[in-house]
Design a protein that fits this description.
- The chain has one domain: Helix Hairpins, CATH 1.10.287.
- The chain has two helices and no strands.
- With about 100 residues, the protein is mainly α.
- The mean pLDDT is about 90.
- Helix 1 runs antiparallel to helix 2.
């Protein structure tokens, strides 16, 4: 037998905002790391410099991809919370229409 879902829409919204903030932190940290690698590059020469530059580009791409995935996840949590809150409101309105005395003092 299935279990009922207990959802707190406001917690989904808060979690979504926090996860989205983490995605922005990842971008900031990635840019700092990119700047540190870029500042180190002049000290490297030849194939070592080329290898470091190539690896740095791979890291930058991976960081941006991860940040984007985290952002999308955060937005999905936030939207889910908003959708559940809206659904709850519609359900409450339906109950009041069917049973006008429900919720009355």
């Amino acid at each position: 037998m299935s279990q009922p879902m207990n959802i707190a829409p406001e917690l989904l919204i808060v979690a979504g905002v926090e996860v989205t903030a983490h995605s922005q932190d990842l971008v900031t940290i990635g840019h700092r790391a990119d700047a540190m690698v870029d500042s180190a590059l002049p000290g490297w020469v030849g194939r070592s410099a080329a290898a470091l530059a190539a690896r740095a580009a791979t890291w930058a791409d991976a960081t941006l991809a991860l940040s984007a995935r985290v952002y999308v996840h955060g937005e999905a949590l936030r939207r889910s919370g908003l959708n559940f809150a809206e659904m709850e409101c519609r359900g409450a309105q339906t109950v009041v229409q069917v049973h006008p005395t429900v919720g009355s003092p």
